[in-house]
Amino acid sequence: MEDITKKLNIKFLRNEPLSNFTYTKTGGCADLVAFPEALEDVSAISKYASQNNVPLTVIGNASNLIIKDGGIRGIVMILRDIKQIRQINEFSFVAGAGSAYIDATIFAQKHSLSGLEFAAGIPGSVGGAVYMNAGAYGGETSEVIESVKVIDENGSIKDLSNQEINFGYRHSVIQDKNYIVLSATFTLNKDDANLIQARMDYFNALRFSKQPLDLPSCGSVFKRPVGHFAGKLIHDAGLQGFQDGGAQVSTKHAGFIVNVNHATATDYLNVIKHVQDKVYQDNKIHLETEVKIIGED
Does the pLDDT value for residue 1 go beyond 70? Predict the structure, then answer.
């Protein structure tokens, strides 16, 4: 992969521990980490990887992600510098894939645009939010997206309408097609900026009161089973406080696994499996992971 580091004017790091970027503070090394700053750079890296048969992994804020201790081969592209947010018209704005979802909510509030309040405390990136249709407190990303600019499997840039994204619960066509999100266009409703801020403050207060925000975690670990709440199933199974290595089922919110003592990704995966096994044993319900798990053992 020597060619690409010389060919493109992009910051690259070799054999970089991905624990430096994940919210869990875990994860092995990547062969090469790229930090593109322009859409053209993202496209160039994508085309290079495709043409040279080099594995390519794309990461945003790495907030709902577990990277295994063996790390990731090939190129890891971190989009944190693709973060411009700009207004298009009275009701719409576009946000780069690497921009923090929280920054998008702040931008919306400052422009008296309502509809993104639910995302006020979601720590991920805009690209990640689109990828998994992130949601909270009754709101979902699918409800506020007009269109998304992506790079397809051929390295070509294309625009997808909301309908073409095929949003579902924690799902989008981005996952199926391995597209790379470049930016998203939000269309919202006008409202009083103070009322918008009050709703954002309310949701953030709920989040602070219920979630273990003082410790490293990967956010909500499990999808919500139909007719149930993952956190309640885990709580009822007596698993709060269960620990393997440095990873622990949060004593504050059973749906979170926190890093309490230099946890490894393997610790996290062991806790996840134990929780899944115990909940299935008690309820015959299989908890599916919401967190994305990638990398080598």
Answer: no
CATH number of 2-78: 3.30.43.10
CA angle (218 as vertex; 215, 223 as ends), nearest 5 = 130
pLDDT in tens, 213-266: 999 999 999 999 999 999 999 999 999 999 999 999 999 999 999 999 999 999
Burial of 15 from C-beta contacts in 10 A (0-12 / 13-18 / 19+): exposed
Fold of 85-208: 3.30.465
Catalytic residue, chosen from 19, 147, 220, 250, is: 220
3-state secondary structure of 90: coil
What are the C-alpha distances in Å from 151 to residues 23, 40, 93, 160, 179? 26, 10, 20, 10, 6
Catalytic residue among 46, 80, 170, 250: 170
CA distance 187 to 193: 16
Active site residue 170: yes
DSSP letter (8 states) at residue 284: S
Between the CA of residue 242 and those of 68, 235, 245, 270, what are the distances in Å? 21, 11, 10, 11
- The architecture in CATH of the region 212-294 reads Alpha-Beta Complex (3.90)
Q: Structure pTM?
A: 0.91
2-78 and 85-208 share one fold: no
Q: How far apart are CA 57 and CA 38, in angstroms?
A: 17
